[in-house]
Design goal:
Layout lengths: L3 E11 L3 H12 L4 E5 L12 E2 L1 H9 L3 H5 L12 E5 L7 E4 L14 E2 L2 H12 L5 E5 L1 E9 L2 E8 L5 E11 L6 H5 L4 E16 L1 H10 L5 E5 L7 E6 L5 E8 L1 H5 L5 H9 L6 E15 L3 E2 L2 E3 L5 E2 L7 H20 L5 H36 L6 H10 L3 H8 E4 L15 E3 L23 H5 L3 E6 L3 H14 L3 E6 L12 E4 L5 E5 L5 H8 L4
Parallel strand pairs: 1-2, 1-10, 2-7, 4-12, 10-17, 21-22
Antiparallel strand pairs: 3-6, 4-5, 8-9, 9-10, 11-14, 11-15, 12-13, 13-14, 15-18, 16-17, 19-20, 21-23, 23-24
Bound molecules: flavin-adenine dinucleotide.
The site of flavin-adenine dinucleotide has 34 residues, from helix 1, strand 2, strand 8 and helix 9.
Amino acid sequence: MVKHQEKRRQVVIVGGGPVGAGLALDLGLRGISCVLVERRKTLQNIPKGQNLTQRTGEHFWFWGIDEDIANNLAMPKGYPIGEVTAYGNLMGEFWHATAGREVVRPYYHRANLRIPQYRVEEVLRAKLAKLPNVEMLMGYMATSITQDENGVRVEVIEDGGEQTITLLGDYLVGCDGGRSMVREQVGIAREGTDFDQVMLLVVFRSKQLHEALEARFPPRSTYRVMHPMHKGYWEFFGRIDVGEGWFFHAPVPLSALQDKDFDAHALIERSTGFQFECEFDYIGHWDLRVSVAQTYRAGRTFIAGDAAHTHPPYGGFGLNNGLEDARNLGWKLAANLQGWGGDGLLDSYTNERRPVFRDTGEDFIAARIKADAVFLDRYDPARDHDEFAKAWKARESEGGARAQRYEPNYEGSNVVAGAPGARCGAHGEHMFKARAGHHLAPQKLSNGRDVFDELGADFALLAFDADEENVKAIELAAKDLGVPMKTIRDSYSGGREAYEARLVLVRPDHFVAFAGDHAPDAHALAALAAGRA
Ligand SMILES: Cc1cc2nc3c(=O)[nH]c(=O)nc-3n(C[C@H](O)[C@H](O)[C@H](O)COP(=O)(O)OP(=O)(O)OC[C@H]3O[C@@H](n4cnc5c(N)ncnc54)[C@H](O)[C@@H]3O)c2cc1C
């Protein structure tokens, strides 16, 4: 048997979790050859990464796994995804069932969804298995990496076996999770907030809990308890299915992890406020930390997903952000390998994605923990019931408002024609107006189809009663630079005027590169969007 091999692929991906698999799929569908190295042969049945945004739904649709995902949901189709938030425990007087991500549904081509992460991974792997240009090395561990100006070299070893492989590639992407070996070996540092707090994670089954919550609350998928003793950290229940599957996480003292007699059941019952029977499937923990890598690129090496950013699962941002990294990086690597994308396009990956996560981690997660702590300190129903009731009521609209405000955008990107001085980040506002650096909202075309159904995998120029000479100039410029682009012509009416621009240049990840009625310098625009300005 051959014990050592050498293989060359265009892109080597270390880490075949959901983000690595998503990236391999994006690249594979673009005709790029890649190899995915994953040390685990089987999937870990922990139902994390369940709360997925409308944008993630768009990735699944774009990657052609929409239906497979829909056929693998653990929840009944249409079951409400939102949250119940309660004070003290789930039987307490104060609770609300707030609006959540559903408020921004009109701005996306697909709905948000709830599905255990391992089921998404199963679907991704099944789809990858059908792509001849993607090789999956499951049960292989990457041990070391080197790179120079010409390429990357990754050494891998078979887990428990003798086979070793040297993988040579043009680019390497580390999707190898929070403890990323790739990030460490290329020397990328991280920064952020360490809360110095351990969180317990329990996966269990209980029909009694389901029945009690069904009787007390409107149908919801998650239940969050705010307790003054936790200083803003959550006690949190998430449904895995509608019937008996649950996960629960809560802050615990470090000593609880070392105590073999620690009573997790009693902890959960303190949170529910009533006793119930359950069977445990898994007990684990994680450290509460928000951290983001200082750059997502070092030479020919990139990092994505948890390798680039980690945080507690408060608000369902981790996997959603990781898959967006994959979608952002996929077309840029492909453009570079196909010869039409410049180095500026590769740099734009850090420029665009890193500030989004910095804002997400610090302003949407860490700041929320701190604000909850302040609220719990300031208001106490035992001290002043009416004052607490008023303040609690005022929080009811927060979930929907937060979803509306969470609008990752790349206005300040080096490959987008954004406003001078604009920045990239997670703060924004959902709108139908097409704005450079923002996600394109869906809109009907006069043929009855949605604009998303026509966009495709390359650049698309929306020309709605636009100056034909200007349209031709942009088409010519794209052709000159080898930038693949199609034009979608239609009238500036029938709802399409909501874009407030007759010309919209849409990138392969369906973010807007340019929006306006006239592009004064077509060549400069095409060069900018291709990272060759
Ligand atoms: C309890 C919980 C609930 C969560 N809920 C949500 C949610 O609702 N929504 C959301 O968006 N996110 C959620 N998250 C976060 C989400 O699970 C992570 O962000 C997601 O797993 C990141 O995916 P990844 O592919 O980047 O990393 P990982 O899932 O960590 O995958 C990394 C992979 O790399 C492999 N690997 C590592 N080193 C090597 C090596 N040297 N060689 C080969 N392979 C290697 C590992 O085996 C692993 O498979 C939750 C997390 C937890 C813990």
